[in-house]
Amino acid sequence: MANVIVNRVIEFLKKYPPFSFLSPELLAQVGREVDLVYFEEGEFLFQKGEPAKSYFFVVKEGAIKLTDHFEGKEETVEICDEGDVFGVLALLGKRPYILNARADENSLVMAVPVGVFEKILSENNKVSLYFASGFASGQVVVRSGLSQTQKVRTLFGRDTNENGLMLFSGQTTIQFSHPVIYCHTGNTVAEAVQKMSREKVGSIIIVDQNKHPKGIITDKDLRNRLIAQNLPYSTPVTKIMSQPVVTAKKDMEFSQVYLNMVKHRLHHLVFTEDGSSDSPLIGIISDHDILLSQGNSPAVLIKALQESQDIHELAKLRNQAEGMLKYFLENELAIEFIAGILTEINDTLIRRAISMARSRHEAVFPELRDLQFCFLALGSEGRGEQLLRTDLDNAIVYEDVADELKEKAQNFMHLIARDVMDILFACDFHSCPAEMMANNPQWCQPLGQWKKYFSQWIREPDPQSLMMATIFFDFRAVSGKQALADALTQHVYEEINQAKVFLNFFAKNALLNPPPLGFFRNFMIEKSGRHAEKFDIKLRAMMPLADAARVLILSHQVVGINNTFKRYEKLAELEPSQAALYRDAGKAYEIFMRIRALEGLSTASSGRFIQPDSLGKLQRQLLKNAFFPIDEIQKILKVRFQLDYFGN
Amino acid sequence: MDWKKLFGFAPLPKPEFIKVYEKSMERKIAGGKPVSELEFLVIDTETTGLDIKRDLVLSYGAVQVSHNRIRIASAREFYLRPKKRNREAIKVHGLVRERPYVSREQLIRSFLDDAQHKILVGHHLGFDLAMMERVGRSIGLGKIKNPVLDTFNLALRLDMGKFYDPQAVVSTDYSLDKLCERYAISPDDRHTAAGDALLAAQLLVKLLKAAEKKGIKTFADLMG
Q1: Of the residues A321, A473, A593, B116, which has the fewest C-beta atoms closer than 10 A?
Q2: What three-state secondary structure class fits A530?
Q3: Pairing of strands A609-610, A535-536
Q4: Can you point out the beta strands (E) in A351-494?
Q5: What pLDDT is attached to residue A266?
Q6: Can you tell me the distance from the alpha carbon of A580 to that of A569, in angstroms, rounded to the nearest whole number?
Q7: Partner-chain contact A3 B100, CB within 8 Å
């Protein structure tokens, strides 16, 4: 029976997760069962090591601090205020408490019996994810949980089916052309063309007797492979079709489909029943379909960038990309997707800039027209993680030339680098304060010199070298001769094999930024009214994870994976025993990227400095949970590279 | 020969639940029992007025406090159907709000069940108890025999000591509203019986903590 007292409790609880996920009936069930307990300042609610009670807590009024003992002193780990849920170990496995809970001021606390919640936990997906992901306070054991947080985040405040890219056109499923126009492998081109003409389509799929797609013929193929080749119309379709066709599953995530098409410049993607090409055809999607349905899409933007000749237009297009980024972030698209698109946009811009610069200067250096070079992205852009237009870090490596051409090659490359950088600056990228950019002659060098640089950093790992290594080791070929970058990678691994101790130095360097344990102590100070402190998310949260990933991936001699989150994915694969931790670290990194990008967009800054109280309750929890893997990862480095015995 | 019974003057036989209640009152709470282990029933009534002889109970709210915890599971809210229902008034207002109406017997039964072995608590509790006795009289309830604790008196005592001079007190300073303000209790659902009972319960747990600091540690201390 509804009554005023129970309603009062329900009204309060329903404002806060996880209670906000409950149906009115379940909420009433929970509300009826709680106790209100009053604690005076300084009183303990529970102490570390005590067996878990049969209820967990929600702060109704006041503040409860969770504390731990460090070197004999009681230190605050976290402050819980109105609506915060804590003491949930009671709910999860009934282990003894791992922290103390003590009233920081006079507080009224709700005790929610575990009994009523256990059933909910097993039945309500959102609630169980909430707890499994460690959103409740003082839940230090989040090891297996972080990979869930992304899932949870999308659950909060929005419907689960709302997280696909189809938001663009308001659809959540892939819409492909249908019926599909196809003909059989036995048909002639003439028969195929008649069909295409009748159906007014520019392409036709060739299928075998089982309706498995074998190839595709487009208008372009007719032009290039039939007419230009002087072949008769009776030519079998199999002779001129493009094959194999790229196939996908129809229920594949749209963002994945889309990213694939953008990245591989596919014009058509064919859908089959099971996603393989040995399965019946069910539909086709063309880039044209996408362009038509989505005016302001990455594909359009990339295409426009590719075709632009004008520096102002490039700048305008790049600004447009920022709006898109905001949209992506606000709609909670996967970071992997967002970073993939943004990297592709930046890379396209750079390629465009290089081609413009090249055509401008080529004529002056006729003897160097065939000079091979490679434009390298470094740092976060090298890792394919640069969401905002922050500092540029890049370099040029070109092939070694004969002595008499050395100076000329240097001049040519430098002119190109200068023009490219000017275009990038015009597009609102920022200059690197340390001038680690291709227009700095030091970083626009032939392969031979680059090898010397890397050898020196590896063989003389002083602090300066290690600092360089953290930036330059993440190089990625953006444009030009990939083989030059590959040669450099090869060289790096050879050198490291010669001087293995480098990795120990590199690992030690990765520990320079300890995890931000002090964050929530600052948070507490700020709460009591002192000067608000900001939090450096790049230095304190992202760099430790990126640095650790780099060292670990180097130690496994893995080539070609630069994304920090993909590196962790790879590490999870390589070291199954630590897989959970690595996955958490990767997810944590994605969370930091997202929060930083949002902060940067909202404050028109690099997003590096976060004001903790500008974050909502869930975001704060998310951030806090994401810190935990840092410490664990650093412990792995310490043990693996024996850093405790490793002198300075 | 029981003449009264013979001529129909005698009250109806006492219902079993009243007997059970009265029996339970024979067991006294030990004076040495720590305050933190005591069990309370906090009640409040809304009435048609302040005249114990004439006015009627409209609603009743109650919640239990034990071991310093307010037990929401024990929350009660009951409404008695007004005796003289004014049909005209109902017509004017168009509708009557649906209330969890109960009979007087149901109300008294619930109250007595909850009250067993409890210390009764309320703000100006004497009035509420007098009203409850009036509701219960016709079904055989005599005096309510529980130990009682008035939050008004307890708040006063904490300020003035045990032997304060009632004349020196401005009683409005100790109204439920004023005390809620002083003890940082947000006055939600004020002036509904259940809402006020919850406020009084919150006041009680805070006063008990304060009392403990002043050396009021046992049941005997609290009642003394």
Answers
A1: B116
A2: coil
A3: antiparallel
A4: 373-377, 394-398, 444-446, 476-480
A5: 73
A6: 10
A7: yes
CA distances, A402 to each of A367, A398, A446 (Å): 12, 12, 11
Confidence band for A128, pLDDT divided at 50, 70 and 90: low
Q: Of the given ranges (A266-280, A537-551, B209-223), which has the lowest mean pLDDT?
A: A266-280
Upstream peptide bond of A366 is cis (omega within 30 degrees of 0): no
Return the structure tokens found at B194. 């259940």
Contact A4 B189 (CB under 8 A): yes
| Six-digit token string for B154 | 């307890």
| Burial grade of B8 (CB within 10 A; 0-12, 13-18, 19 or more) | exposed
Mean pLDDT of chain A: 81
**Signed CA dihedral, B212, B217, B223, B224: sign only:** negative
Phi/psi of residue A60, nearest 5 degrees? -95, -50
| Cβ atoms < 10 Å from Cβ of A592 | 26
Is residue B162 within 8 Å of residue B216, measured between CB atoms? no
For A51-74, the pLDDT digits (tens) are: 888 888 999 988 888 888 877 888
Tokens at residue A632, please? 């664990």
The residue among B88, B81, B77, B97 whose CA lies nearest residue B192 is B77
Residues of B in contact with A2 (CB under 8 A): 100
Q: Are A79 and A28 in contact (CB under 8 A)?
A: no
CA distance A599 to A620: 13
Q: Which residues of A touch B73 (CB under 8 A)?
A: 32-35
How far is A418 from A415, CA to CA, in rounded Å?
5
Q: What is the 3-state secondary structure (H, E, C) of chain B?
A: CCHHHHCCCCCCCCCHHHHHHHHHCCCCCCCCCEHHHCEEEEEEEEECCCCCCCCCEEEEEEEEEECCEEEEEEEEEEEECCCCCCHHHHHHHCCCCCCCEECHHHHHHHHHHHHCCCEEEECCHHHHHHHHHHHHHCCCCCCCCCCEEEHHHHHHHHHHCCCCCHHHCCHHHHCHHHHHHHCCCCCCCCCCHHHHHHHHHHHHHHHHHHHHHCCCCEHHHHHC
pLDDT at A552 over 90: yes
Q: Which residues of A touch B (CB under 8 A)?
A: 1-6, 8-9, 31-38, 40, 61, 106, 108, 111
pTM for the predicted model, two decimal places: 0.54
Judge contact between A135 and A103, C-beta under 8 A: no
Give A263-319 pLDDT, tens digit per residue: 666 778 888 888 888 888 888 877 666 654 454 567 778 888 888 888 888 888 888
Nearest to B125 by CA among B17, B42, B36: B42
Given pLDDT bands bounded at 50, 70 and 90, which one contains residue B134? very high
User: A37 contacts in B (CB within 8 Å)?
Assistant: 68-70, 205
Q: How far is B80 from chain A (nearest CA, A)?
A: 15
Tokens of B39: 């069990």
A106 contacts B194? CB cut-off 8 A: no
Please judge whether A36 and B100 are an interchain contact, meaning their C-beta atoms are less than 8 angstroms apart: no
Residue type, A627: F
A4-13 and B193-213 helices cross at what angle (nearest 10)? 80
- Which of A90, A117, A109 minimizes the C-alpha distance to A32? A117
Distance in Å from the first CA to the final CA of chain A: 70
Using CB atoms, which residue from A6, A36, A40 is nearest to B69? A36
User: Do residues A100 and A46 make contact, with C-beta atoms less than 8 angstroms apart?
Assistant: yes
* A476/A563 Cα distance (integer angstroms): 10
Q: What is the pLDDT of residue B100?
A: 67
Quote the CA–CA distance of A117 and A87 in Å, as a whole number. 14
DSSP class of residue A180 equals P
- Residue A108's DSSP bridge partners are A38, A61
Beta bridge partners of B57: B47
* Model pLDDT for residues A445-460, shown as the tens digit of each residue: 999 999 999 999 999 9
C-alpha A69/C-alpha B213 separation (Å) is 28
